[in-house]
Amino acid sequence: MSILQNKTICFLGAGSMAEAMISGLVDKKLLPAEQIYAVSRSGSRAQELAKHYGIVTPAKEEAISKADIIILAVKPKDIEEAIIGIRSMTSSRQLFISVLAGTSTDYITNLLGHSAAVIRTMPNTSAAVGLSATALAPGAYATDADMEVALQIFKAIGIVETVKEEALHAVTGLSGSGPAYVYYLVEAMEQAAREIGLEGDTARRLILQTIIGAAHMLRDRGEEPSALRKQVTSPGGTTAAGIAVLEEHGFQDAILACIKQAVARSEEMGKQSLSTS
Ligand SMILES: NC(=O)C1=CN([C@@H]2O[C@H](COP(=O)(O)OP(=O)(O)OC[C@H]3O[C@@H](n4cnc5c(N)ncnc54)[C@H](OP(=O)(O)O)[C@@H]3O)[C@@H](O)[C@H]2O)C=CC1
Ligand SMILES: O=C(O)[C@@H]1CCC=N1
């Protein structure tokens, strides 16, 4: 029996990331939808999720005080106000799981004002289809049993890596933001498809299968990406001609700079939250 069977989870924040997790959790039936609550600032997003996924939206006080697990899913800039708005309703029996970019467990514990068990995580929106790449790290007061609970939640919606908390900035720039880099590539491929005269739906299907196929090859064949790339690249052929242009345009440098900048932004957001506390 799942250790979550009799637990209630409350999402504080009902935006893109909360929805991705709720969608994945409800789909995997990790726990009944009636044991998942959502609270948002205006309330309307939480209502939308309730309508769509069958979760419930009790009033904030009831949702927070009853929940065994509170998933903090507001933007980092809103966390101070959000926690101030709930802390009198919380207690040390509860587990707090944060999905916030840049924000440390110590910062959240300090805001809560008691020795709260906090686990910091970085999932991604592919949680919605059970394919998140999540990394997590325990805060000072989180026990092994708390980690087990968090692992169960995130394993239901993808793969999970346990890391040191400092590594979460790197994870955020790599796999937290990562889906957006892939979508951006697809946008560019679709633009190219239009310019070379391929019909939209046909191009979408071909691009999608190309990405799924390449991802499966990487996962299932155990070969290096460079080796797989070489298998596609016939000397003097079409791929070599295309890759030469990517090299001329600094493709690899652009990706490197992109990920490093996202990591730097996560670190900066962490410092900003410390300076306002
Ligand atoms: N989007 C992503 O791909 C990922 C996001 N994250 C992290 O997830 C968190 C949420 O991001 P995302 O879902 O994109 O953000 P959204 O802007 O989509 O959602 C934020 C939600 O927080 C709610 N909110 C704001 N203030 C409060 C408050 N005081 N009390 C209750 N609810 C509040 C908002 O309410 P209302 O609807 O009324 O405005 C909204 O529902 C961020 O910290 C981000 O770093 C992590 C991994 C990936
Ligand atoms: O863009 C952001 O800040 C969030 C964190 C990771 C993905 N989205």
Describe this protein's structure.
The protein has 277 residues and is an alpha/beta fold. The chain folds into two domains: 157 residues, NAD(P)-binding Rossmann-like Domain (Rossmann fold); 89 residues, ProC C-terminal domain-like (ProC C-terminal domain-like fold, Orthogonal Bundle). It contains twelve helices and seven strands. Helix 7 packs across helix 12 and helix 8 crosses helix 9. The radius of gyration is 21 Å and the shape is elongated. Bound molecules: NADPH dihydro-nicotinamide-adenine-dinucleotide phosphate (NDP) and (2S)-3,4-dihydro-2H-pyrrole-2-carboxylic acid (A1CAB). The site of NADPH dihydro-nicotinamide-adenine-dinucleotide phosphate has 28 residues, from helix 1 and helix 4.
Kindly report the spatial arrangement of strands forming the biggest sheet.
Answer: 2-1-3-4-5-6-7
What do we call the CATH topology of the largest domain?
Rossmann fold
| Second rung of CATH, namely the architecture of the largest domain | 3-Layer(aba) Sandwich
Q: What is the CATH superfamily label of the largest domain?
A: NAD(P)-binding Rossmann-like Domain
